[in-house]
Amino acid sequence: xxxxxxxxxxxxxxxxxxxxxxxxxxxxxxxxxxxxxxxxxxxxxxxxxxxxxxxxxxxxxxxxxxxxxxxxxxxxxxxxxxxxxxxxxxxxxxxxxxxxxxxxxxxxxxxxxxxxxxxxxxxxxxxxxxxxxxxxxxxxxxxxxxxxxxxxxxxxxxxxxxxxxxxxxxxxxxxxxxxxxxx
Length: 183
Known about the structure:
Blueprint lengths: L1 H4 L15 H8 L9 E4 L6 H6 L6 E3 H7 L13 H20 L3 E4 L9 E3 L3 H13 L11 H16 L4 E2 L2 H9 L2
Parallel strand pairs: 1-3, 1-4, 2-3, 4-5
C-alpha cells in the first residue's frame, strides 16, 4: 500500500507544525548561515551534488538534506509516485525552504510547488545529458538516469517558466551561486 511506504503521508498520521529550532541549529553546525537566504532550483543531473560536495566552505546546503532532515521528504523514490503524492511532498518542502531562507541558509534543490526561487539553473541540453550519462558509468548518486530524459525535459520546461517570470537563469550552479553570493 502506497501510504505505508511513505509513513509521513499516511492519512492516519496527522501532521502538525512544530518548533524546528533544534533542527535548524543542528544544520547550522555544518552549513554556514548568511544575512539573507537564497534558493537555487535546478533539474536532476544539473550538477547540484557535485557543486555542494566540492565547496571549500559549506555555504550551500543540498535541498534534499534540508528537506529530509526536516521530515518534509520521506525515504525512497517518492518522485516516481502519482502527482498527488509528489505535490504533497513539494508543498511541505516549500514550507521548509521558506523557513530555512528566513534563517539565512543558501539552498540548492529541485523541489518547489509554489516557492519562487532566487535563481534557476538549466544547463545546455547536450551538457545536461552528458552529466546524466556520466553518473551512470561513474558513481551513481541518485536522481535521473538516461531512462528519465522525458521527465528531465519536463522539469527543465517547468523551471524555465520561472525565468520567463524574471528569475535569473544560469547555465551552471557555480554561475548562479556566484551571482547570489554577490548580492
